Amino acid sequence: MTIKILLTEDQKLMRIGIKSLFDDYPEMEIIGEAVSGKEAVEKARLIKPDIVLMDIGLPDISGVEATKQILENNTHTKVIILTSHVNENDLNASLAAGANAYIIKDINTEFLMSVIKMVYEGAMWIDPKVVPFIRDKNNGMIPSRQISRSAFKQNHSNLTQREYEVLKLVVDGQSNSQIAQTLTISEHTAKAHVCNIIQKLVVDDRTQAAVKALKEGLV
């Protein structure tokens, strides 16, 4: 199985940089590039990609409008907004247009590839950096609820308090080395905690663990 991707980005250097990320991931292939929203709509119609990586700030129509048009014409295609802007209006507009994910461009490569695979399989992903916008508006896209320590233990009694702390950092997008620095533990220990969390939450990887934590209001 190869995930076919259309990359839409008007900045040449950024486009080259994003393309280079896929060199070590043969299960994904960039089969087309677009430098404008209108070109993205047309190429999506012609090559029918599985995933469109879509920038928002494009020289003609916006990435949001392009997303809307692409999804009207390609029911199987999924759109991932990949942007440098932590912007509430862009987030809301992207979700309203039907985007399956909203990602800030400073995401690490491993995490990005995991999100692409999840979206391809039908999941939705919102970057933790913009989740507070949704919670603050309480518009129901992601549950806005605090969980007490007793309720947490009742619902997930097999997770230790330390694993809960690690889980919150995973949701923040931290790597194992960053988690180790934050909690003043070894990277090996951080990795072990992440592996335990994945196993206990019955998910396949750290990205799915983060999604489950957000959906269930654990963080």
Q: Explain this structure to me?
A:
This protein is α/β, with parallel strands linked by helices. It folds into 2 domains: 3-137, 3-Layer(aba) Sandwich (Rossmann fold), CATH 3.40.50.2300; 149-215, Arc Repressor Mutant, subunit A. 50% of the residues lie in helices and 13% in strands. The protein is built from 11 helices and 6 strands. It has helices at 12-20, 37-47, 63-73, 88-97, 109-120, 131-137, 149-155, 161-171, 176-183, 187-200, 206-215, and strands at residues 3-8, 28-34, 51-54, 78-83, 101-104, 125-126. The protein has a 6-stranded parallel sheet with strand order 2-1-3-4-5-6. Helix 9 (176-183) crosses helix 10. The longest helix has 14 residues, at 187-200. It is elongated, with a radius of gyration of 18 Å. Residues 138-154 have low confidence and may be disordered.
